[in-house]
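Q: My labmate handed me this sequence with no annotations at all. I'd like to see what the chain might look like in three dimensions before we decide whether it's worth expressing. Could you predict it?
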Amino acid sequence: MSGSGSLGKQKARERERFTGVLKGLGFPELMSRSEGLRARFSGLIRAVSGVLAGRHIVSFCPFESEPQINIESEARDEPYAVAYVRIDDWGRREMSARKARRDTPDLWEELELGKGRTVYQPRASQPYCEKEDIAIILVPGLAFTREGVRLGRGAGFYDRFLRLHSSALRVGVGFDVQMAGELPFEEWDEKLDIILTDSASHSSNFYEEWRKHGKITSRIGT
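A: Here is what I predict for the chain of 222 residues:
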């Protein structure tokens, strides 16, 4: 959701600012920072591998200006199953998690978003992930705070998706330059549990509960 009133205007200003920050990264810097982010992701997986037990991590295919995160190994030996988000209904802002791998191109399709933007996503024929099989959801964004506040692009897809999968661990992925001291926050915005960047990991909210039990039951709506 794009927001309304003064908070909506604040969000619009922050989106413009952080969109500029990401576009200002040259390709070498983008890839270097992405490598650091992947190292942080690998560290997280090592720390929680016993909790994963073959359950799914749900990721996304990034835009060119976003962190280039890849949760798949060439050997296909991940201690988790792989899935990705798919936009099912643009007008209703609905996404689902589908089982697919990026190293199998015929499982994917291209979706035109307008304004020169294209997203790759699993085909509609790919099987759904059951809610209870999802352990971790990787979440992109334009900006984040250490407390788990996320600034998205304003459509509301992830807020709705996260609300429907409240027992999963929510992991924001970004760069250090996307961290903010404070961001506008509205009642329908969903917070994250961990923020991974190219040089740090910021945990908050329900991470410890998830690490102990493999799911979050105390989050409102679970």
